[in-house]
């Protein structure tokens, strides 16, 4: 049985390849092959989130996520049950890899921000841990 003891140390910012156009027409980033360490089975995005609102507030038992700020910025508050860390995402060529078993909350969305999420699994309500007390029990 795989351990539920994932930690803040396993959270990584990964570079997404950036192709700069020599004619000044903008940049292109591509996620393919082994850019992220899982096969993408679900893609969704958050947008029009008011600056005083937050998203997330849960953990996953098995699912891994890769978050990218396609536009604007937002903070990701991460919690492994022992430590907390806040990471600001604000570059479309950087992504945040969140392993299973990490509590996450997204907040401080700038105007016009868009958060793209690539997930290792399709939606499964049974995979969510939505109550923090249950999250701590899952981690022990």
UniProtKB/TrEMBL annotation:
Entry-linked InterPro entries: QdtA_cupin_dom (IPR008894), RmlC-like_jellyroll (IPR014710), RmlC_Cupin_sf (IPR011051)
Species per Swiss-Prot/TrEMBL record: Xanthomarina spongicola
Lineage: Bacteria, Pseudomonadati, Bacteroidota, Flavobacteriia, Flavobacteriales
Sugar 3,4-ketoisomerase QdtA cupin domain mapped to chain residues: 10-139
Membrane-spanning segments: none
Entry protein name: dTDP-4-dehydrorhamnose 3,5-epimerase-like enzyme
Pfam family, one: FdtA
């Amino acid at each position: 049985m795989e351990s539920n003891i994932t930690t803040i140390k396993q959270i990584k910012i990964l570079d997404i390849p950036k192709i700069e156009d020599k004619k000044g027409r903008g940049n292109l980033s591509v996620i393919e092959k082994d850019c992220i360490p899982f096969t993408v089975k679900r893609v969704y995005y958050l947008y029009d989130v008011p600056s005083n609102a937050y998203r997330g507030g849960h953990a996953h038992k098995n699912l891994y996520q890769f978050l990218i700020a396609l536009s604007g910025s937002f903070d990701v508050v991460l919690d492994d049950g022992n430590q907390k860390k806040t990471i600001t995402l604000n570059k479309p060529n950087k992504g945040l890899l969140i392993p299973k078993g990490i509590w996450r909350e997204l907040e401080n969305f700038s105007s016009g921000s868009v958060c793209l999420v690539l997930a290792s699994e399709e939606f499964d309500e049974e995979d969510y841990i939505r109550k923090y007390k249950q999250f701590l029990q899952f981690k022990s």
